[in-house]
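pinging the channel bc i need a second pair of eyes. not urgent but kinda urgent?? the chain im working w is below, pasted from the shared doc
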Amino acid sequence: MTREKDDMKKTAVFLLFVLLSLFGETSLFASSDYGTTAANFLKVPVAPVPSGMGQAYTAMYGTDSVLYNPAALSMMSYSSISGAHNQYFMNMTQEYLASNLRFSFGTIAASYSSFSSGKFQGYDSEDHPYGDISAQFSSISLTFSKSWPYFPDDRNMIDSMLVTPYWTRLRPVEDFRPKTYRFAIGASVKNISEKLDDSTANTFAFDAGAMLILPGHWQFGFSSMNNGGEVKHAVQSFPLPSVLRLGVAKDVHTKGDVMIFTFAADGVKYKDSDAYINSGLEVNIASVFQARVGYTTQNDVLSSLTAGAGLSLDLFGVDGFMRGARIDYAFVNYSDFGATHRIGFQVIW
């Protein structure tokens, strides 16, 4: 019976691995390495702001940069928290929480994300129903990033070199600041865990990134994510889905900053798939409402187009908590599998 249970676990691991690969960022037929990585929940988009922009976020900065480029966190002059809940088909759910703290020596951030399969039928080696089982996947990370030149006194201020944020509680820098460049590096270490029934596997990974800001609100980002060990279930081990990202972003302002258009594009190459392009557009209207649309060239069951929206809650409070809070939504369609919805919040201080 023990052997049959072990066989059932291996079968269920494989089935769930395939399912996660379907709506991750891997291409079904693009690479001979397809199906060779584990922890594919790391590919599933979780934060609504990047998801709405087609995940073109390597050269953007925000709390969610912990998922795309750890270096970008040091470009933030404020501390913040970001969270999201995502509902998928077949009772699958995803949770996410991240926070960054700005200090005089740099920025420290932490994040947690999880993916739950819900209950599904398990089978033994002879394809006999074994009963309901479930799977849980999680990642916990700790990040440090640093930028040069660094202005520790610019807390809650807007650096005019950067793509303009939509937080109205941030005030412009009044003193002179050189406008030649901004450069940042960052790194994360994270623990990745997979649990299927009573079988558990853990491993460690690290991320690294860099960011360059040039005059004219041009932002460039590079990151290498999910580098590290292997995930072992039963007798088989699989590498993590390491990925290289290269991105660019720029914003354009209308008169009086009534509308700000931010364009972003990423080149993405996962270990087990061919390279593809993500692109996104965000329209910020009066720093109150944001509309987003994204496009990806990846060739799988994920629809090419994504969309999203955001609302700053500044209108509901002149001072205090509400002025630094916002809610965001993203719509991502998985073709025959149906639509998925991401709802999140952000708070800065």
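so The domain at 2-348 is CATH 2.40.160.40 (Porin). and The CA atoms of residues 6 and 307 lie 42 Å apart. — does that match what u expected or am i reading it wrong
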